[in-house]
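Backbone shape codes
____________________
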Amino acid sequence: MNPIDYLSQQLDADVAEMAALAPMDSLREFLERHARVKDGAQYVPYHFAGREALAQIVERIDSILGSAGLPIEVQGSSGRVSNVASEKLAIGNSQLAMQDASLAICGGAQFGKTVLMLNLLVYLAAVRFRNVGYYLPDDDLVQGIVDGKLRPDVLDQIPAVARLIQLGRTLNGSGRAVNRKGALLITDGTRTALAYVRGMGKVPTTFSMDVVIQDEKDDIAEYNAKFLAGRLTASDLRFSLSIGTQRYHGAGQNREFEEGTQHVGFLFPKEKEGFSVLGSEFSVGDRNETSADDADEKSPLSTGCGVTLLARSGGGSIPENRKLITENSSGLNPEEHWPQVCRLSLSGVPQADDPQLTLEGDFVSAVTGQRWPVTAMREGNARVYLADPVTGAPLDRRSVRFVARRPDREAQRKWSYRVSQLIIDAIDLRQIVAAWAEAVRDSEKMIAFCTDRLALPRSMSQGLDPAALQRAREAEPYSLALTMPTRVAPTRVRYAGLDMGDRCWFVVAETGEGKSADDADLHRLKREENPNEIPSENLRQSADGSRSCLVWAEMISAERVRERVPELCRALGVKILCVDAGPLRDLSRDLCFTLGAGSAQRWDEAAAMWRYLRAATVEFTLREGQGIRQKPGVTQDGAQYPLIACNREETIARVIADLQHPGGPRFLLPERTAQLPPILATYEQHLLAGSRQERSGDGKSLHYVDKCENHFLLATAYAALARQLDATESATVSPGFGRVQSIHRSRRMEG
């Protein structure tokens, strides 16, 4: 064959491949027609068998991109959308997309999320001609991802795409192609798109994106990540994705999950599988379907995740703890029922009395009490499977349905999915069980098991978790509506803390005299009669044997602090306010002058302490073990104001210790109700995020993380410091500021 004929054939082949690529509308179609995944030593066509959960996430991405939407009328050939669809935009020529959407995929390890995202990157760039930024924690990972996954597992498997893409090339400011590691330049001769795989070692600049993907968000510097939204400004799509494991409560990937729809995977009983319950046959039936004979005997049973269990009529009596999950029930989320959700069938055929996996890492029969080691799952016909912990009904790992626990977030276009390995049937369940047996004997392996297998956050370096906050809510339940109380009892004392910045965070904690259990019950009845009264006469137990509770939390702009904070202190009867000394030092100092004006506050040189303290600035300048030092700050004109020096670690640890006290929480939180102000969710999130510790640069010590969303935790720590300062001076409980009658409601921060 002469060179001209050869080149002609190659050109015809390229045109045919590009023609096959062009008409595709959806990501799912692209994956199933072109993508390939590694299976052992070879590559096979991309599929969702055993990974059905991923199919639903792909459908969500398609719906966001408009690939699953209905066609809309487009004006002319420019793709301009009519005014009727003003909130949506045309992609290609007929599809709908959602602007400003976000999607968080919070999963365990090794179920295919990175390969999916890399294929999404190629689809967006080569099919949609969208600019994409794929961000990793550092540049070392960039080289590993590009050379170890993107090139061999994606680009080399799709020849039609490989011919469009120049790997390692991008455009400079003048439009000329230049070399850059991790850059992809895609062009079909008329259209051009750019994609970048970049590390987040510094603030992202220069490049404009339509879609931003963050991989392993827990390891990406939070400060740098905040600038990614600016890279989307010029786009008409502005789609943000994040993927990775959840290691820390209230931060990183877990925060993305909590702020989204919180979709979790539910499993359902296997269809048409014979199943016996202690010798009696039962079938999976409708939630409310019971015979007239046993209508009076039916007993709903909760599994702990909102699933109501009802038995159908059948031969023989039904043990109360062996009711079946109904077909129309909401299913069962397996990671929240681990390990009891896992069972061992020695015969290979599931039975209701099969032994269950235990917290000790072995299997035990609920009927006989006999135990089996996890190695029994590899003997003979034995198999492990997932089943309802109460009924024993086998669950189908391929029958996955995602349920949103915060469906209201869909209106905000904030979607989040949690994908554990338990709902990925392609991952051998025996592998997960073996990992559990090792985890129960090793605390560090337990952390890895929870994050990698169950997709649940867990960290030894985090002082607080949701369970600790739940105990603080349940110890002395009370409601909090962030409205002005009708009265403040003279036995109550309130202390406030203020963390400063562009946004300032104000917290008031209340301490009152301890009461007996009878008094507490009486006060609870009074609280039901007057829900607007902030209840905490009996809520005191801290370092001095008393409890305290949260009564106010508010975010205030720095411009309003001078007016708002004194107003709140007077209305709420705050005795002492402690203010962050920086970064707004002048504002912090001015608050001390404002709140201390007209009071008896003065510096006692002989005692080296402030008398009748009303407001003080706080700076973290002392080392651990040096205690708390009071001193006067002096302005240029000689005016003195209170200045407190202490250690940051000890100040934060005081709050965490009060919440985690072995005798019960000493700092109480309001119970969660439908009327709970949204700002309280932010408050709890700050407690979790700020309680995490990290190692210092020399690796010798731990310190609480800085430069994260921990402002309410710091404000609470300042309030606790104010209480401690008061205890060192006197036992007086009189309010420190004059009272005002009301605060205009429009100024009240309730969300």
Summary: The mean pLDDT is 79.
